[in-house]
Amino acid sequence: MFALIDNQQITKFYSGNKGVIIGDNQYPKSIFTLWNETQRNAIGIFEVTVDTTNKKDEQWYFNTNVSYGVESNKAVGSYGTATAKAHADTLWTQADSDDGDLPSDKSVGDVKTEGLKTQLIRTIKQQASGLLAPTDWYVVRKADAGTAVPSSITTHRAAVRTKAAEMETAITNASDTPALETLYTYVNTGTKENPVIERPLGEFPRLES
After folding, report:
1. CA-CA distance, 28 to 147, in Å (whole number)?
2. 157-177 tens-digit pLDDT
3. Would you say residue 147 lies in a domain?
4. Are the C-beta atoms of residues 178 and 61 closer than 8 Å to each other?
5. Which domain holds residue 144?
């Protein structure tokens, strides 16, 4: 993206896909690809540089809109301070009821807005269910016909449930949103020569073929 700077103010933005008119002069769109920076700057057009220092992962945070301005005769954009998404559920309160905001199908203490923990734990349960589904037929066959479930299958299914419980506990015990983000952030726990990329939350076990 490009911006027209006049008297230290951004007066217009350009996407760079068509020609522009500045004052009495008309310029082809090629100025955005064939002209160098110095040539564009000479007619007041500057490429916009966006500072992403404050931008955070949108899975965990709400980012602000980008604010644009001129610094040192350069067109710049920047994000404001990101706001962490709520890690805990928001509940309907007595005040909501007194104000008439409580829906007819809800009671004081019911969940008003789900927090990240509730959403993440639901995902863990879904992932565990998806991993168990392919071997459910062994359990059904045992119930119907009495055929024993292979020990490898029993071991795998138990391991999936155990890991799911561990993950849910870790999520529940996270003190805030940054702590949740840390659980899911992959880091190298090995060395540069022998990297081991993993996350504190861990991974589900896989059934050996």
Report:
1. 77
2. 999 999 999 999 999 999 999
3. yes
4. no
5. 115-198
